Amino acid sequence: MKKIVTKFGGSSLSDASQFAKVKGILEMEPARQYVVPSAPGRRFPEDDKVTDLLYLCHRQAAAGEDYRGTFDKIRARYMDIAHALNLKADIAAALDEVCARIGEDESADYCASRGEYLNGLLLADYLGWRFLDAAQAVRFDEKGNFDSEATQTLMSAALADGEPTVVPGFYGAKPDGKVHTFSRGGSDITGAIVARAAGADMYENWTDVSGFLMADPRIVENPREIASITYKELRELSYMGASVLHEDAMFPVHRAGIPTNIRNTNKPYHPGTIISVNAPLETSVPTITGIAGHKGFSVISVEKAMMNAELGFGRRVLQVLEEEGISFEHLPTGIDTMCVVVSGESLAPCRERVLARIIELTSPDTITVHDNMSIIATVGRGMVHNCGTAARLFSAMSRAHINVRMIDQGSSELSIIVGVDDADFEATIRAIYNEFLG
Ligand code: ASP
Q: Does 290-437 match 4-276 at the fold level?
């Protein structure tokens, strides 16, 4: 039988009426047998997220302040849901235990993880499903790195009987049993892990938007929706994807060949966006799948005559960045120049040191830094067989009087990346969007 793993985000489980929507969605499709919940999110724009309140409790307790007032807000959120849905689980006792342990020097990770844990208890009770504590089946090593293989073994064994199960998102445990969390938004990763372990046919990620848009709606008015995108394309569009789906949530399902479907809990009949390994056979693929970018990059340009013949030149430049813990975004090179694009924020605190060390290691003819550059990725599997895409893109930019400062196209032909002044960021995205999709 078909198996679907569903993950519901914080706004999808923020109160009793959202819980009822979730139950309705699960009942619509019997293949939806596994649920990964987040902690209760915001019910209205000024509302608190339970996870933020839990971190606050931890900070207050660690500073010796009274955290019980903050915890009462958390308690009220869960008790309201339990009362409204007439649930049997002894959530009051579970809340008392969490409250006491926050005061007993528990780690920030433990405190934050209780948002998902308690919501999972309520949801399992409401659905009449089994509850599996993620600490039993999601494993991190002693240093806190996710242990994918140990997790796959434990989780697939725990789910092997096929019983419908609720697995709280966001956390797991180290080998000594101490709770450890993923980074913020990490319930998306748990969902992907459960999908892989269950051998699911589909990973449904239910949130409060109907999937990805082809461009940022704050820049392009009413952009088109993306019906289908590949995992590789989404990686190239990572500047866009991160706000909807945690970046690390793609790996377990991509590797297992399981598609991800982004869906909207408040519009359950909207098909959303399907992310798959290979896009379905389409009669007409749009040339462009999406456009996304980011401001605030710096470009370090190193120039030296005969650089191309000097073995190890590139390695020495990159070694300096590695020493400072800076990762680079792009690396466009010419015959005698090498440019390294890094985020301006990561360079700022060690800028002088980085330049001095590159000079020391490579003795360049010149070295310069250009700040305030935006990077914009135009991505599309449809580019591969379409001649003239780059010409159209650059003509559109030139008609909009935008100066191109950098060009980078990977040999995958999946994307064209341009660098422009930060001041031209929005205009560039609009010019490209209008050329291909307007
Ligand atoms: N509740 C956690 C957070 O707010 C994890 C999640 O929702 O995915 O980051």
A: no
Mean pLDDT across 172-196: 97
Q: Which atom of ligand 1 is nearest to the CA of 186?
A: 8
Give the residue ranges of DSSP H helices in 63-198.
68-84, 91-102, 108-127, 148-159, 187-198
CA gap 427, 422 in Å, rounded? 10
Q: Domain 290-437 in CATH: superfamily?
A: VC0802-like (3.30.2130.10)
Q: What was the pLDDT predicted at 121? A: 98
- 189 C-alpha to ligand 1 centroid (Å): 10
pTM, full prediction: 0.91
Contact between residue 404 and residue 319 where contact means Cβ atoms under 8 Å apart:
no
DSSP secondary structure string for all residues of 171-235 = EEE-TTS-EEE-STTTHHHHHHHHHHHHT-SEEEEEESS-S-BSS-TTTSSSPPBPSEEEHHHHH
Pocket test of ligand 1: the residue of 6, 7, 8, 49 to mutate, having most ligand atoms within 8 Å of its CB, is 49
Say if strands 406-408 and 415-421 run parallel, antiparallel, or are unpaired: antiparallel
CATH of domain 4-276: 3.40.1160.10
The pLDDT of residue 384 is: 72
| Separation between Cα atoms, residue 405 and residue 262, nearest integer Å | 35
pLDDT digits (tens, 9 = 90+) for 331-387: 988 889 999 999 999 999 999 999 999 999 999 999 999 999 999 999 998 887 777
| Other CB atoms within 10 Å distance of the CB of residue 76 | 11
pLDDT for res 226: 94
Q: 3-state DSSP call for residue 304?
A: coil
| Sole residue written with tokens 């599996």 | 132
Domain ranges of the chain: 4-276, 290-437
DSSP summary character for residue 10: G
Q: Whose Cα sits closest to atom 8 in ligand 1?
A: 185
As a whole number of angstroms, the distance between CA 160 and CA 180 comes to 24
Written as one string, the DSSP assignment of 364-417 is -SEEEEEEEEEEEEEE-GGGTT-TTHHHHHHHHHHHTT----EEE--TT-SEEE
49 lines ligand 1 (CB under 6 A): yes
